Fold:
Amino acid sequence: MLGDRTLGAAEKMAKRKPVGTTQEAAKQTGPLRRNQAGKAKVEETGGVEKLGIPPDADRDLEPAEWVRKKLKFAPDAIQARLLGLISKRVVLNCTRQWGKSTVTAAKAIHEASVRDGSLTLVVSPSARQSGEFIRKASEFTRRLGHKVRGDGDNEMSILLPNQSRVVGLPGSEATIRGFSAVSLLLVDEASRVEDELYLAIRPMLAASNGALWLMSTPFGKRGFFYEAWDRGGAAWERVEVTAEKCPRISEEHLKEERRTMGERWFRQEYLCEFVDSVSGVFDRDVVEAAIREDVKPLDIP
Structure:
């Protein structure tokens, strides 16, 4: 009897019109409903409501134009070309103080905004450097009108309303494993990142066929950054930006730096040259030129 009375009450409630709605709205059915402001919609799935974000009308803009309009960031000509690259493998060899972290932070937010539910990772030699990258990306997030919030799992992270994430990782091979389906993998200050860390993060792109960007100023003829630049082959798109190409660095400053730093350090830090370590007796190029593949090893019994 109690079950009959409960069922009857439920049937009466179902026949009532929703309070504060018109008759037409009361007849509306289906999984999707738009709110009064028309800014978002609620999807009901199995009793769970999910906030859906309306499509960004500007997401089809060229990346450089999107960055100008949405992030209020004006890239220079080379930065604009970099933002528009579609290559899966990019190695950026640039002068100090060119703004590589800023432009790649803009790249990260663009990627996260136009690819719903995507994952962008940034790896740096230290947690401090990854944190600085996330700080710049957070500022761009605010310019989009979003409140900056983390993903709840990673200390250095940004979760956008479309469920895309940007996550900063420290330079430790032992603590970065576990990520997969990465859409964009950024390695900042790549010449200072250990090879072991680089080899540990590459498999994160296997299932997603994501993009890999290496960005740095040179640091000798060694490591994966040098190998990708010098011997990576056609798979890598290379972008070089010396200090002379940066409109924000004056000629007077460069003259002072050359006098102060000396020729070797100046060529490395500002001219993007991979110079040999001062501790070596012979240049690497000389040693490699002396090696021959056709010489049989000497077997000593």
Q: What stands out?
A: The chain has one domain: 63-286. The first strand starts at residue 32 and ends at 34. The radius of gyration is 27 Å.
